[in-house]
Structures are given as structure tokens and as C-alpha cells.
Design brief:
This protein has two helices and no strands. It is mainly α and about 160 residues long. The chain starts with a helix and ends with a helix.
Length: about 160
């Protein structure tokens, strides 16, 4: 395999790695958007909870001692607690997803660094091979220039021997 083919293979590998990095960047951006949407939903739920709490406060003031209204308020408080629990569970899930994403990003960064180090080593080896090839080409051209002289010497030696 000549150095041009090696270089073409490395160039192809680098392009493929760059494409994969771009794809991963897009995937990360999409996941970030999804997380942002979830955060907005959690904030809206928090606002909804605040509005419900305000309504409950008004109901308690108006209801006074009416048992039926107190039962309704108790049910609403149970709903709010469930909403809090759901919000907490969703928030916990979001944190876990963020932690997993951060871990995946770190791992991908490590893999990318390793791949880049390998590429740099390969490029260094290719440069060394190219330098050796250039040195050999220079030596060969010097030998080609000496070929008529060597031919004359051979002729003289063979003539002298015969």
C-alpha cells in the first residue's frame, strides 16, 4: 500500500469520525431540547400548583365550617400532593437522565480523544514513511546520476581483465 492510499484511508477515517461527532452533537442538541421542554413543563406545573393552592386558600376562607366543602378541599389537597409526587418523580427522572447524558458525553469525549490520538500517531508514522521515501528517492536520483560512471568503470575493469 503506498503512502497516498494510506493518506486517503486516514483522510476517510477522519471524515467519518467528524461526521460521527456531528451526528452525536445533533443528538445531544435534540436531547437538550427535550430536557428544556421538560423543564418548561415542570415550571408550568409549579405555576399550576401555585394557582391551585391560591384557590384552596380562598375555598378554606369561604367554606368555614361546612363539612362538604372541607371534604372537597381534602380531596384537592390529595390531588396536589399527588401532583407534587409526580413532579418530584419527573424531576428525579430528569436529573437521572441528565446524569446519564453527562456520563455518555464524557465517555464519548474520551473515545474521541483516543481516536484522535491514534490518528495523530498514524499521521506521524505516515510522515516518517514519507520522509524515508523522500530520502530514498534522493539517494536513488544520486545513484542514477552515477550510472554512466559506474558503467565506464565496469567496462574498463572487464577490458583490463580480458
Amino acid at each position: 500500500m503506498d503512502s497516498k492510499q494510506r493518506f486517503d484511508q486516514l483522510e476517510s477515517l477522519i471524515v467519518d469520525l467528524a461526521r460521527k461527532v456531528d451526528q452525536q452533537s445533533e443528538a445531544i442538541a435534540k436531547q437538550s431540547e427535550a430536557i428544556a421542554k421538560q423543564s418548561e413543563a415542570i415550571a408550568k406545573q409549579g405555576e399550576a400548583i401555585k394557582r391551585i393552592e391560591q384557590r384552596i386558600g380562598g375555598i378554606e376562607q369561604r367554606a368555614g365550617g361546612i363539612e362538604q366543602r372541607l371534604d372537597n378541599i381534602e380531596d384537592q389537597i390529595g390531588d396536589i400532593i399527588n401532583i407534587f409526587k409526580l413532579s418530584e418523580a419527573r424531576h428525579t427522572q430528569s436529573e437521572q437522565r441528565l446524569d446519564m447524558l453527562a456520563t455518555e458525553i464524557q465517555e464519548q469525549g474520551r473515545r474521541t480523544d483516543e481516536a484522535l490520538q491514534i490518528q495523530m500517531q498514524m499521521i506521524g508514522l505516515m510522515r516518517a514513511g514519507n520522509n524515508k521515501t523522500e530520502a530514498l528517492e534522493q539517494r536513488y536520483s544520486l545513484l542514477e546520476n552515477q550510472e554512466p560512471r559506474i558503467k565506464r568503470l565496469e567496462d574498463e575493469v572487464f577490458r583490463a581483465a580480458s
